[in-house]
Design a protein that fits this description.
alpha/beta; Rossmann fold; Glutamyl-tRNA Synthetase, domain 3; 2 domains; 14 strands
Length: 280
């Protein structure tokens, strides 16, 4: 059975890019008589707002989508802790106290996920008085599992290249898990068979595939769709307040826009004025 999901974080309103992703994931499941799941990724500290999670449900219903809701991330903290302890005990994680400013000062190279951490704290004794994250030692991890690959429904079989992202954070200083660890464990527990998400997360998939190999988790397929771009040629994103600049689903809903009609337009590639699709 095909099982897909839409997993937004309630730290900002949804925009048309989210709607496009949700419609694709929903339709792929429905096409094969499968299941479309909603999972709220709500472990972003005080930025996670319950009222936004409720707005997300209203947005999806307004679009005419149907779904099954699974437990939110905040109910799954024990599983994240267990997995992180497993990796730590195997010597695959190391503590890191570096701040973003300190990393930038080292002039690291820019990789698929932004600044690539240069491994400053690897093998070093860290200051116990400073906030500490746990990073994945990618080289040790690859030495343990060897080459891994994953199947993308557009690009075909891909050899994972987690080195491109560097030693990513697995346990954040301010949260019980990073996106990488939480989403990988959640997709396994929820039985996701096709991970449907934007092309911008293509590089992160190599990290997630490595974590699946390390933790003995099932391996889904991936479908990385193109991204919706605004009139400035920038992708719609919460960080650019796209959910509040005329592209927000709640905005459009309150303005009386026809939700199912909008979903059908997104399916056809008939995007609102100023919106274009950057192909995958």
């Amino acid at each position: 059975m095909t099982v897909t999901r839409f997993a937004p974080s309630p730290n900002g309103p949804l925009h048309l890019g989210h709607a496009y992703s949700a419609v694709i994931a929903h339709d792929r499941a429905m096409e094969w008589g499968g299941r479309f799941l909603l999972r709220i990724e709500d472990i972003d500290g005080t930025r996670s707002r319950p009222e936004l999670a409720e707005a997300f449900r209203e947005d999806l219903a307004w679009l005419g989508l149907t779904w099954e809701e699974v437990p939110a991330q905040s109910t799954r903290l024990a599983s994240y802790d267990t997995a992180a302890r497993n990796l730590l005990e195997r010597g695959l994680l190391y503590p890191c106290t570096c701040t973003r400013a300190e990393i930038e000062a080292l002039e690291p190279h820019l990789g698929s996920e932004g600044l690539v951490y240069p491994g400053t704290c690897r093998g070093q004794t860290t200051d116990p008085g400073r906030p500490t994250a746990l990073r994945l030692d990618v080289e040790r991890a690859l030495a343990e599992v060897g080459e891994v690959w994953w199947d993308d429904e557009i690009a075909g079989r891909i050899v994972a290249d987690p080195r491109e992202a560097g030693d990513v954070v697995i346990v954040r200083k301010d949260a019980p898990a990073s996106y990488h660890l939480a989403v990988t464990l959640d997709d396994a527990v929820d039985g996701i068979t096709v991970v449907t998400r934007g092309q911008d997360l293509f590089p992160a998939t190599s990290v997630h595939r490595l974590l699946q190999a390390l933790l003995g988790l099932p391996v889904p397929r991936w479908y990385h769709h193109g991204l919706l771009m605004d009139e400035d040629g920038k992708k719609l994103a919460k960080s650019r307040r796209s959910g509040e600049r005329g592209y927000g689903l709640a905005e459009l809903r309150r303005a009386g826009e026809d939700g199912p009609a909008l979903a059908d337009r997104l399916r056809r590639g008939d995007f609102p004025a100023g919106i274009t699709l950057a192909s995958a």
